[in-house]
Design goal:
alpha/beta; three-stranded parallel beta sheet
């Protein structure tokens, strides 16, 4: 744990600090990817992932949503227009 703390601290010291919504932002060029089965149902993982992805996209992050079994169905919760959705088509 101490190793991660020192790594994070050194990253914060080496980057310009900018506060967005109370969160210290290290780098707005960061790409974030979420991977889950799909977003077409009303489950908790789908809702929380969508809320987090939308927030990050609204604040300038490049967000990818990678699904494995979406099968062309529309997402249940709306996604920010800048979120890139990639379905791998791995139906089980």
């Amino acid at each position: 744990m101490e190793r991660w703390h020192s790594l994070f601290t050194s990253l914060l010291e080496s980057k310009e600090k900018e506060s967005i919504g109370g969160i210290v932002n290290i780098d707005l060029d960061m790409k974030i990817a979420y991977c889950l089965f799909g977003t077409y149902s009303t489950g908790g993982i789908e809702r929380v992932t969508t809320v987090k992805a939308n927030w990050l996209a609204e604040h300038g992050y490049e967000v990818y949503l990678v699904t494995t079994g979406h099968a062309g169905r529309p997402p249940y919760y709306p996604l920010h227009p800048s979120i890139k959705h990639i379905d791998l088509g791995l139906l089980l």
